[in-house]
Design goal:
- The chain crosses the membrane at residues 31-52, 73-97.
- Keywords: Membrane, Transmembrane, Transmembrane helix.
- With 104 residues, this protein is an all-alpha fold.
- The chain has 3 helices and no strands.
Length: 104
């Protein structure tokens, strides 16, 4: 159950950027594209902190209050970096699409 929670917490900013970034480009919502990008980055950071706290609590409950291995944290940080790169690529693609719409 916790694995699904971690993945959903880390995937929500990607889904938000794809859906609302497209709507921000088409100007069908009140948010501008730059505000959508800012919300995505802030939510990614907040969800990472929440996932980190959940993982920390889970590891402490399994080992009687002590954390003996930090490898799950390294995996979480690596996954967060990968997701940040994916979000940046999505934003770049959406920006190029927006720029091509503005030219026409």
């Amino acid at each position: 159950m916790n694995q699904i929670l971690f993945l959903s917490l880390l995937a929500l900013p990607i889904i938000f950027q794809i859906i609302f970034g497209r709507k921000g480009i088409a100007e069908s919502i009140k948010l501008t594209f730059s505000k959508v990008c800012l919300i995505t980055f802030l939510s990614q950071f907040i969800f990472f902190i929440i996932a980190f706290k959940i993982l920390s609590n889970k590891l402490r409950s399994e080992s009687n209050g002590l954390i003996h291995c930090g490898m799950p944290f390294v995996g979480l940080i690596g996954l967060e970096i990968l997701i940040a790169i994916i979000i940046l690529v999505i934003i770049l693609i959406q920006y190029l699409i927006k720029r091509s719409y503005n030219r026409n």
